Amino acid sequence: MALGAQRRDIVRMVLHSGMLAVGLGVAVGGAGSLVLAPLLGSLLFQVTATDWPTFIVVAALSLPGGLCRLLHSRSQGKPRGSDGGIAI
């Protein structure tokens, strides 16, 4: 992060890295769960191994992680101290 960066640039950078992590986590987790679903099918009670509503709800539950990243990025864009020169 460069000195003199605009707030929107900082927010964009932090959001991009955070949402990239959330997106990769959902993609890798979804693919892994589809691969491992047949192995875990015998452990499930009244739910099929490829229950799409469950997949969608679990993916949607990762959104609060992205929202936390948004709040964090907004706080990182604010200058701190009297001159704003304190390192983040």
Structural class: mainly alpha
Count of alpha and pi helical runs: 3
What does the overall shape look like?
elongated
Mean pLDDT: 75
**Could you give the distance between the termini?**
9 Å
Runs in which pLDDT lies below 50 for 5 or more consecutive residues are: none
What is the subunit arrangement here? single chain
The value of Rg in angstroms is 19 Å
Largest sheet: none
Number of strands: 0
SSE ordering: HHH
Percent of residues in helical segments?
55-70%
Strand content: under 5%
Describe this structure in words.
The chain has helices spanning 7-40, 52-60, 63-76. The protein is mainly alpha-helical. The protein has a domain at 7-37 and 50-76. Helix 1 runs antiparallel to helix 3. The longest helix is centred in the N-terminal third of the chain and has 34 residues, at 7-40.
Keywords for this entry:
88 residues
In short:
The protein is mainly alpha-helical and 88 residues long. It has three helices and no strands. 65% of the residues lie in helices and 0% in strands.
Which helices and strands appear, and what pairs or packs with what?
Blueprint lengths: L6 H34 L11 H9 L2 H14 L12
Helix pairs in contact: 1-3
